Amino acid sequence: MRQGCAGRYLEPPAPVLLRLIALTLLLSISPVVSWRPWPNTTTTSAAPNSSDLLFGGSKKFEGSSEFVHMKYHMGPVLTADITVHTIWYGAWQKSQKKIIREFINSISAVGSKSPSVAGWWRTVQLYTDQTGSNISRTVRLGSEKNDRFYSHGKTLTRLDIQSVIKSAVTARSKPLPINPQSGLYLVFTADDVYVQDFCRQVCGFHYFTFPSIVGYTLPYAWVGNSAKLCPGVCAYPFAVPEYMPGLKPLKSPNGDVGVDGMISVIGHEVAELATNPLVNAWYAGQDPSFPVEIADLCEGIYGTGGGGSYTGQLMDGHDGATYNMNGIRRRFLVQWVWNHLLNYCSGPNALDQPKL
């Protein structure tokens, strides 16, 4: 029942009330533009599923729920080869760019050591359009644009992100190409840039640009480097918040807490852009203004057993760094995504994978 409703009503029987409460909690998960990679209690933990249906003998299914009804709403999804165009806003080190570039390139990499980023993407590929065509296997890094001098300032609103994209696609020198059908535009802000609601409600968000601002409708996402502003929120578990004393942060796999924290957010947003680019394709819930998307359902789950405040089983390298999947040469920690065929969160790292 909504608060503030006038009048009296009969209280439903307890079992019915409990179901209503559970359903209400599920549908109140973060909307498309308000995501933070933080362990939560909206997804229940469950024992690994013994099914070998889609991913061989690996046991890597967690967070199942009979209340989740991921539905296709007939909008477009990205079935053609996906090209990711990046905008580096502010001051970025070459080493930081290399980490992010390799993650994007690893999505389609062949021959990466298992468990791999490409294996993680196979769950995203299960989603289809109305013709039955699957999300593209191919995700390639496209053109890049540097905005080193903070052309729109160091404090940005959500709409300012679209203005940053406009500047990149209309630049006099080497503008980003316009690709509305299969292009994704990712804006990465440096660690000294504050974006509206950053750290308080969001670590990243995705949407589509407005023709009135950019001139085109382009699927895009923003992800910020939280290293200076809020690593305990947006770079968890490589940093922990002050209100959780005694909890030790994990060692990041690439030696950069802010960027390693960004990787999972980037994966979250790219997966949702591929399956819901115009916010009218794959999501759960009744309200398209506040959709629950395939990555929202698996926040905080990185391995078998994940749920609540537990990330799930992860792997530790010889250097003590923690990760759950391999890229081309690097290792990454990336949250799982929802498998709508099994009604589970899925990931490539299995309970039976050896620690390296």
How many domains? The number is: 1
Amount of beta strand: 15-25%
Order of helices and strands: HEEEHHEEHEEEEHHEEEEEEE
What's the gyration radius in Å? 20 Å
Average pLDDT confidence is 83
Q: What is the tally of helical segments?
A: 6
Distance between the termini: 51 Å
Percent helix: 10-25%
* Quaternary state of the chains: single chain
Give the strand tally.
Answer: 16
Overall description:
By secondary structure, the chain is an alpha/beta fold. It has one domain. The chain has six helices and 16 strands. Helix 2 packs parallel to helix 6. The chain is globular and about 50 Å long. The relative contact order is 0.22. Mean pLDDT is 83; it is low at 1-61 and 352-356.
Which terms would index this structure?
single chain, alpha/beta, three-stranded antiparallel sheet, 16 strands, globular
